[in-house]
Design goal:
By secondary structure, the protein is α/β, with parallel strands linked by helices. It has one domain. The protein is 31% helix and 24% strand. Strands 3-4-5-6-7 form a five-stranded mixed beta sheet. A hairpin with a 4-residue loop joins strand 4 and strand 5. The two termini are 21 Å apart.
Length: 173
Protein backbone atom coordinates (compact mmCIF):
# COMPACT_ATOMS: atom_id res chain seq x y z
CA UNK A 1 0.00 0.00 0.00
CA UNK A 2 1.72 3.23 -1.15
CA UNK A 3 1.82 6.00 1.44
CA UNK A 4 2.74 9.66 0.92
CA UNK A 5 2.73 12.65 3.22
CA UNK A 6 2.06 16.29 2.61
CA UNK A 7 2.75 18.45 5.62
CA UNK A 8 0.85 16.94 8.56
CA UNK A 9 -1.36 14.67 6.43
CA UNK A 10 -0.69 11.05 5.50
CA UNK A 11 -2.37 9.51 2.44
CA UNK A 12 -2.63 5.71 2.16
CA UNK A 13 -3.42 4.48 -1.37
CA UNK A 14 -4.54 1.04 -2.54
CA UNK A 15 -1.96 -1.41 -3.87
CA UNK A 16 -1.16 -0.84 -7.53
CA UNK A 17 -1.66 2.92 -7.44
CA UNK A 18 1.25 5.05 -8.61
CA UNK A 19 1.74 8.39 -6.87
CA UNK A 20 4.05 11.10 -8.16
CA UNK A 21 4.97 14.43 -6.66
CA UNK A 22 5.21 16.14 -10.03
CA UNK A 23 6.83 19.30 -8.69
CA UNK A 24 9.82 17.16 -7.60
CA UNK A 25 10.39 15.87 -11.13
CA UNK A 26 13.63 16.84 -12.83
CA UNK A 27 11.65 17.88 -15.91
CA UNK A 28 9.41 20.22 -13.92
CA UNK A 29 12.21 21.75 -11.85
CA UNK A 30 14.76 22.19 -14.61
CA UNK A 31 12.58 22.90 -17.63
CA UNK A 32 8.85 23.35 -17.29
CA UNK A 33 8.58 25.45 -14.13
CA UNK A 34 10.19 28.33 -16.01
CA UNK A 35 7.37 28.36 -18.58
CA UNK A 36 5.21 31.33 -17.53
CA UNK A 37 5.90 30.57 -13.86
CA UNK A 38 4.09 27.22 -13.99
CA UNK A 39 2.46 25.75 -10.93
CA UNK A 40 1.82 22.10 -10.03
CA UNK A 41 -0.69 20.08 -8.01
CA UNK A 42 0.75 18.23 -5.04
CA UNK A 43 0.19 14.69 -6.33
CA UNK A 44 -0.65 12.95 -9.56
CA UNK A 45 -2.19 9.58 -8.75
CA UNK A 46 -2.49 6.90 -11.44
CA UNK A 47 -5.09 4.20 -10.85
CA UNK A 48 -4.47 1.43 -13.41
CA UNK A 49 -7.59 -0.59 -12.54
CA UNK A 50 -9.99 2.27 -13.04
CA UNK A 51 -8.15 3.99 -15.93
CA UNK A 52 -8.19 7.14 -13.84
CA UNK A 53 -5.70 9.85 -13.03
CA UNK A 54 -6.36 11.84 -9.88
CA UNK A 55 -4.98 15.37 -9.65
CA UNK A 56 -4.71 15.95 -5.90
CA UNK A 57 -4.03 19.30 -4.28
CA UNK A 58 -3.63 19.52 -0.50
CA UNK A 59 -4.21 22.64 1.59
CA UNK A 60 -3.86 22.56 5.37
CA UNK A 61 -4.99 25.73 7.12
CA UNK A 62 -5.24 24.26 10.61
CA UNK A 63 -2.17 26.11 11.88
CA UNK A 64 -1.62 28.86 9.33
CA UNK A 65 -4.21 30.92 7.51
CA UNK A 66 -4.09 31.39 3.77
CA UNK A 67 -2.16 34.51 2.74
CA UNK A 68 -2.45 34.46 -1.07
CA UNK A 69 -4.67 37.05 -2.68
CA UNK A 70 -5.85 34.82 -5.53
CA UNK A 71 -9.04 32.89 -4.69
CA UNK A 72 -8.27 29.28 -3.77
CA UNK A 73 -10.41 27.87 -6.61
CA UNK A 74 -8.52 29.98 -9.17
CA UNK A 75 -5.20 28.80 -7.76
CA UNK A 76 -6.29 25.16 -8.02
CA UNK A 77 -7.58 25.61 -11.58
CA UNK A 78 -4.24 27.15 -12.59
CA UNK A 79 -2.29 24.30 -10.97
CA UNK A 80 -4.44 21.72 -12.80
CA UNK A 81 -3.99 23.45 -16.15
CA UNK A 82 -0.23 23.84 -15.68
CA UNK A 83 0.21 20.26 -14.44
CA UNK A 84 -1.61 18.80 -17.44
CA UNK A 85 0.37 20.97 -19.85
CA UNK A 86 3.59 19.90 -18.13
CA UNK A 87 2.65 16.24 -18.36
CA UNK A 88 2.03 16.59 -22.11
CA UNK A 89 5.45 18.18 -22.53
CA UNK A 90 7.15 15.61 -20.26
CA UNK A 91 5.69 12.73 -22.29
CA UNK A 92 7.95 13.75 -25.18
CA UNK A 93 10.67 15.96 -23.77
CA UNK A 94 11.90 14.67 -20.41
CA UNK A 95 15.25 12.91 -20.30
CA UNK A 96 14.19 10.82 -17.29
CA UNK A 97 12.67 7.52 -18.43
CA UNK A 98 10.57 7.08 -15.25
CA UNK A 99 8.99 10.50 -15.76
CA UNK A 100 8.34 9.82 -19.45
CA UNK A 101 6.72 6.44 -18.71
CA UNK A 102 4.46 7.86 -16.00
CA UNK A 103 3.39 10.75 -18.25
CA UNK A 104 2.63 8.31 -21.09
CA UNK A 105 0.48 6.12 -18.80
CA UNK A 106 -1.40 9.15 -17.50
CA UNK A 107 -2.09 10.49 -20.97
CA UNK A 108 -3.26 7.24 -22.57
CA UNK A 109 -6.44 7.75 -24.62
CA UNK A 110 -9.51 6.92 -22.54
CA UNK A 111 -7.97 7.98 -19.21
CA UNK A 112 -10.38 9.96 -17.05
CA UNK A 113 -9.12 12.86 -14.93
CA UNK A 114 -10.53 13.38 -11.44
CA UNK A 115 -9.69 16.49 -9.44
CA UNK A 116 -9.57 16.52 -5.64
CA UNK A 117 -8.90 19.48 -3.41
CA UNK A 118 -8.19 18.23 0.10
CA UNK A 119 -8.52 21.21 2.42
CA UNK A 120 -8.18 21.08 6.20
CA UNK A 121 -9.40 23.86 8.45
CA UNK A 122 -9.48 24.16 12.24
CA UNK A 123 -11.99 21.73 13.76
CA UNK A 124 -12.68 24.16 16.58
CA UNK A 125 -12.54 27.61 15.01
CA UNK A 126 -11.29 30.49 17.09
CA UNK A 127 -10.47 34.11 16.47
CA UNK A 128 -6.87 33.15 15.73
CA UNK A 129 -7.72 30.12 13.58
CA UNK A 130 -11.13 30.70 11.99
CA UNK A 131 -12.83 28.34 9.58
CA UNK A 132 -12.52 30.60 6.56
CA UNK A 133 -13.81 28.49 3.71
CA UNK A 134 -17.18 27.06 2.83
CA UNK A 135 -16.23 23.86 1.00
CA UNK A 136 -19.51 23.75 -0.94
CA UNK A 137 -18.86 27.28 -2.23
CA UNK A 138 -15.32 26.38 -3.32
CA UNK A 139 -16.68 23.25 -5.02
CA UNK A 140 -19.25 25.21 -7.07
CA UNK A 141 -16.66 27.75 -8.20
CA UNK A 142 -14.09 25.07 -8.99
CA UNK A 143 -16.64 23.09 -11.04
CA UNK A 144 -17.27 26.12 -13.22
CA UNK A 145 -13.54 26.64 -13.81
CA UNK A 146 -12.48 23.07 -14.64
CA UNK A 147 -15.62 21.51 -16.12
CA UNK A 148 -13.86 20.44 -19.37
CA UNK A 149 -11.29 18.50 -17.30
CA UNK A 150 -13.54 17.14 -14.54
CA UNK A 151 -17.22 18.03 -14.33
CA UNK A 152 -17.44 16.48 -10.86
CA UNK A 153 -14.39 17.53 -8.82
CA UNK A 154 -14.29 16.85 -5.10
CA UNK A 155 -13.50 19.24 -2.28
CA UNK A 156 -12.93 17.18 0.85
CA UNK A 157 -11.45 17.11 4.33
CA UNK A 158 -10.50 14.14 6.51
CA UNK A 159 -14.02 13.91 7.94
CA UNK A 160 -15.58 13.62 4.46
CA UNK A 161 -13.15 11.36 2.60
CA UNK A 162 -14.31 8.01 3.97
CA UNK A 163 -16.15 6.13 1.25
CA UNK A 164 -15.84 8.97 -1.26
CA UNK A 165 -12.27 8.31 -2.38
CA UNK A 166 -10.23 5.16 -2.89
CA UNK A 167 -7.60 6.25 -0.35
CA UNK A 168 -7.48 7.04 3.36
CA UNK A 169 -6.18 10.22 4.97
CA UNK A 170 -4.93 10.60 8.53
CA UNK A 171 -3.55 13.54 10.44
CA UNK A 172 0.02 13.21 11.69
CA UNK A 173 0.99 14.42 15.18
Amino acid sequence: MPTVTEGKLKFDFPAGYEIEKYDNWSFYINQFQKVAESKAVDFIVYSPNASTVWLLEVKDYRLNSRTKEIPVENEIAQKIRDTLAGMVAARSNTNVSHERGFAQRCLTPGIRFNVVLHIEQPKHPSRRFPREYDLADILQKLKALIKPIDAHPKVVEIATTVGRLPWNVDSLP
